[in-house]
Amino acid sequence: GQNIDQPTEMTATEGAIVQINCTYQTSGFNGLFWYQQHAGEAPTFLSYNVLDGLEEKGRFSSFLSRSKGYSYLLLKELQMKDSASYLCAVVDSNYQLIWGAGTKLIIKP
Amino acid sequence: ETGVTQTPRHLVMGMTNKKSLKCEQHLGHNAMYWYKQSAKKPLELMFVYNFKEQTENNSVPSRFSPECPNSSHLFLHLHTLQPEDSALYLCASSQDWSADYNEQFFGPGTRLTVL
Q1: Nearest residue to A33 (alpha-carbon basis) of A99, A85, A95
Q2: What sign does the dihedral B28-B33-B34-B39 (CA atoms) show?
Q3: N or C, which terminus of chain B has less Cβ within 10 Å?
Q4: Beta-carbon separation of A99 and B102 below 8 A
Q5: Region B88-94 average pLDDT
Q6: Quick one: how far is CA A86 from the chain centroid?
Q7: Residue A44 burial (CB count, 10 A)
Q8: Residue A60 has pLDDT above 90, yes or no
Q9: How far apart are CA A14 and CA A90, in angstroms?
Q10: Hey, CA dihedral for B81, A40, B71, B95, is it positive or negative?
Q11: What does chain B look like in DSSP terms, one character per residue?
């Protein structure tokens, strides 16, 4: 079977750094997406990794290790508006998106 | 604003009702999707349409009936639903259905409650 694992919930402090991990076991790999979803809103695209390494985009970075079946999303200088769910999704060998259950991130002042 | 709109945003219906969810995308995409999102569960892909043709039906009960009259519009017709069908129903679109870089753009969803 195909499986994506992420922590259910994390808490961090405003101004700090947080790392959200995602591990996957899928039939093939053709890329990994991270999406952000605020409560009651649409998921929105954050990042895409297909090669090993770190992709940086402002305060957000995403890392991929294909050999380990592992990715993380790194959020720096946390702001209250970063409180949201973060969804990890892998493109499998059939080019279908396999989704994790999401990580709810709570930011405290 | 993602370029994908959904109506209604909230829907409460009885088990014997018939209702429809509507999705429209203004992005010129060729593929459209229906997902079910339940609390603390992964997004469940229900249906995929590519160039108006249904390409995926992931064992969805027949009480859910999709319709795609053109590449910009997608409907989900609902009838004789069960309380366990209560969830957030998300519509998404992407440029193509089968591609490695397949960024999907989501609508805000319809929060459905079945009584």
Answers
A1: A99
A2: negative
A3: N
A4: no
A5: 96
A6: 5
A7: 14
A8: yes
A9: 29
A10: negative
A11: --SEEEE-SEEEE-TT-EEEEEEEE-S--SEEEEEEE-TTS--EEEEEEETTEEEEE-S--TTEEEEEEETTEEEEEEES--GGG-EEEEEEEES-SS-SS---EE---EEEEE-
The mean pLDDT value of chain A amounts to 95
For residue B12, pLDDT beyond 90: yes
Within 8 A of B4 by CB-CB distance, chain A residues are 42
Residue B56: its pLDDT value, please? 73
Residue B57 reports pLDDT greater than 80: no
Q: Do A48 and B109 touch (CB under 8 A)?
A: no
B99 Cα to chain A: minimum distance (Å):
6
**Residue B59 predicted with pLDDT over 90:** no
| Bridging pattern class, strands A32-37 and A3-5 | unpaired
Tell me which DSSP letter residue A91 carries.
Answer: E
How many residue pairs from chains A and B have C-beta atoms closer than 8 A?
A: 53
* One-letter amino acid for residue A78 of the chain: L
Q: Is B60 on the interface with A (CB under 8 A)?
A: no
Q: How confident is the model at residue B28 (pLDDT cuts 50, 70, 90)?
A: very high
Write the burial class of residue B59 (CB in 10 Å: 0-12 exposed, 13-18 middle, 19+ buried).
exposed
Reported as a single tens digit per residue, the pLDDT across A75-98 is: 999 999 999 999 999 999 888 899
